[in-house]
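User: I'm new to structure prediction. If I give you an amino acid sequence, what do you actually give back? Let's try with this one:
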Amino acid sequence: MTRKPLKGQHHVSAITANAKENYRFYTEILGMRLVKKSINQDDPSVYHLFYADERGNPGTDLTFFEIPHAGQTYPGTNSITATSLRVPNDAALDYWKTRFTEYGVEYDEITRHSGRATLSFRDFEGQRLILVSDQHDIGVKGGKAWEDSPVPVEHAIYGLGPVTLTVSRPDLTEKVLTSIMGFKETRQYAPLEEGQKPVRVFETGDGGSGAEIHLEERRDLDRERPGRGSVHHVAFRVEDEEDMHKWVEYIKEIGIPNSGFVERYYFRSLYFREPNGILFELATDGPGFEGDESFETLGERLSLPPYFEDQRAEIEAKLKPLDTKQ
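Assistant: Good question. You get back a string of structure tokens that encode the predicted 3D arrangement of the chain. For your 326 residues, that looks like this:
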């Protein structure tokens, strides 16, 4: 069965210990829209929050599982060590420096990586984030910035950029990316830390910022111990459910342990780990987030997939109230 190429990043899912403060940071400071307030479908006792462009277009979602007692993250290898967020141009980074100073956000100086201007920063839990300028990007399109955001549209975040994987055995991750998932290595750039090997760039689909994985080799670090402020998994875009079933069969045929087809209601998924232990997800572009809420009211109420509706009272009783009315 012929499978269509993966189209780029679909979403990145991370961990927070504080849903209320997380909501404040990503909506009031970063200006992203909360497009879905839902639950972790594998643990309905905790929130799953989706921040994105105006309607949660595929390739724009940064999501968080709330784990209230999550401990500190001890950064290390065999993990997702940076998530990039796309902004329109280089000038937007100057706006963000000023904004970060105003709000007391920890950030680094603007630098260039792989030909793009970037601005690294951390959220209140140390989540490792990078704003990346799309000024010279010609690859997969980003989403559409939310017009009601507190950040002006001309500077707003409107999609996911490159995701950095830091691993101890890059040859094994490379094999999965290229031989199985169809990525191509396109270039390298200077290491993030002196004395290390260059970072390798892999692209899929139409390429560009929204379809890149950056692979960093680090053999001098211990394995990361995840907690609040760490990344749980990265998901890649599959065209539709028909193609997803082809991916499920293919991953099964080549003997990679996997979840099989998973119904998430807002999209359909498949999960597996690459050899260094990083969790990958494949996720369909649709159906999207407007099946149970209107565009105007996205994220304002607790949304439960239909197969959880009969548990609503029990689920709501266990969750701390979180006011997300816009």
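You can read the tokens as a compact description of the fold. Here is one thing that stands out. The CA atoms of residues 76 and 224 lie 4 Å apart.
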